[in-house]
Amino acid sequence: MMKVRRQAKILEIISKYDIETQDELAGHLQEEGFHATQATISRDIRELKLMKVSAGGGHQKYTPVDPGSERLAEKYLRVLRDGFVGMDQAGNLIVIRTVSGMAMAVAAALDAMSWPEVAGCIAGDDTIFCAVHTPEEAASIREKLQANVSANDL
Known about the structure:
- By secondary structure, the chain is α+β, with helices and mostly antiparallel strands.
- The protein has six helices and six strands; from the N terminus they run αααββαββαββα.
- The longest helix is centred in the N-terminal third of the chain and has 15 residues, at 2-16.
- The model has no long low-confidence stretch (mean pLDDT 86).
């Protein structure tokens, strides 16, 4: 569970910041309460299939190799399943409840899934507001979420 949370946090960090080095990533993880050795971070980078790409100005940043890949999608689904507690719909908004401290990671996973119905997500500590274009599409997203989270009470 700690590995999944740490890897979810890594995905969240690299989506927010241009992270150029493992030391920089370790610093951000430390700020978020994750203490990891260089070897652990290196293994996480390999398992998450992160690579460095140009960030402009002679700098590089970590990014997923192929956001559409099946293997990465499985990792996002694992973050979703591990953090998900429940959800409700209010018009074109889906309110998703998560394990405390996991909302940002789950929202990052939802964003990375690139479902066209989703306009965007806003996350707090344990709650996500997921804006969907129409109430009908919100119902469709709820069905997708239900199909993707394992045996949780919805």
